[in-house]
Specification:
Length: 263
């Protein structure tokens, strides 16, 4: 669901409707270049706050313990989120984590570009057998029929590794090293809606089941969140990224949103 992207907007009360977040949409105007991630970008969150580099906190704050970084909702409005400072342009992104339990609680791993290409992993706090895998191209939300569930056991109790192998030809979602979904370029509206522009990595937790959210969002999230049962915590052990197009920065040379226009 596109709801995940709302968490970066920081407008906590209207989380579910903030929809998307872009500083400057390069399909609409001239925008600054996107700083490029190095060829290898790894973070071991078990090492603690002082050694975590290359991320900005876009909402809330994190705590650390020997399992990694903890993204916790203690009360209504909490939605701690981090975002990589730099962008990858095709690459391999691996996140080892344990999702949060809790009714209506969503743990998410999102890749998103400035023209709103997006790739998601979303964990519903009360769904113990699968994770949602979704994507959007150029912010196209005319239909919500692209989500597929991937089987995984006890994502709220056990650490698993969720990875994406993203090239200009295909996007593969992998769980614990096994490919569970493949999207070919041509299968996303002939490539037009295939995620293909430089993206940041965003990790966060939010209450899709907040009683102020729309009924449809609350239902999707698995029901109303009861904050008296907080804290709700997602734990991220590590992130490893290989950027297939390392460099200094990415320039959008036109307004097509095509990967061919990125220099
Ligand atoms: C948006 O997505 C719909 C359905 O997936 C598709 O039919 C339509 O062509 C897309 N629009 C654009 C502008 O790509
Ligand atoms: C990613 O995909 C490319 C192209 O299909 C392939 O060569 C590579 O081995 C894949 N990497 C991983 C880690 O799966």
């Amino acid at each position: 669901m596109r709801f995940s992207t709302s968490l970066v907007a920081g407008a906590l009360a209207s989380l579910a409707y903030a929809q998307t977040h872009t500083e400057c949409n390069p399909m609409e105007k001239d925008c600054p270049n996107n700083p490029a991630m190095s060829a290898e970008f790894s973070t071991d969150f078990k090492a603690g706050a002082a050694s975590v580099k290359g991320w900005k906190q876009t909402a809330g704050s994190l705590a650390y313990n020997n399992e990694g970084a903890q993204f916790t909702i203690n009360k209504k409005g909490d939605a701690p989120t981090i975002q990589s400072e730099t962008y990858l342009f095709f690459g391999y992104v691996e996140v080892k984590c344990k999702a949060s339990a809790g009714q209506g609680i969503i743990s998410s791993i999102v890749l998103q570009s400035e023209d709103l290409d997006e790739v998601d992993w979303e964990f519903i706090g009360t769904t113990k057998t699968n994770v949602q895998m979704n994507y959007f191209g150029k912010g196209n939300t005319t239909t919500y029929d692209r989500m597929i569930e991937g089987a995984v056991s006890n994502p709220q109790q056990e650490f698993h590794t969720y990875a994406l192998n993203w090239t200009s030809e295909s996007l593969v979602w992998l769980i614990d090293g096994k490919a569970v979904r493949t999207l070919k370029y041509a299968d996303a509206v002939g490539g037009k809606n295939f995620p293909q522009t430089p993206m940041t990595v965003r990790i966060g937790i939010w209450a899709g089941g907040d009683p102020d959210n729309a009924q449809g969002v609350i239902e999707w999230a698995g029901g109303k969140t009861d904050y008296s049962k907080a804290p709700f915590t997602m734990t991220v052990e590590s992130v490893k990224v290989t950027n297939y197009s390392p460099g200094t920065e990415y320039k959008w040379t036109d307004k097509t949103g095509s990967f061919k226009s990125i220099e």
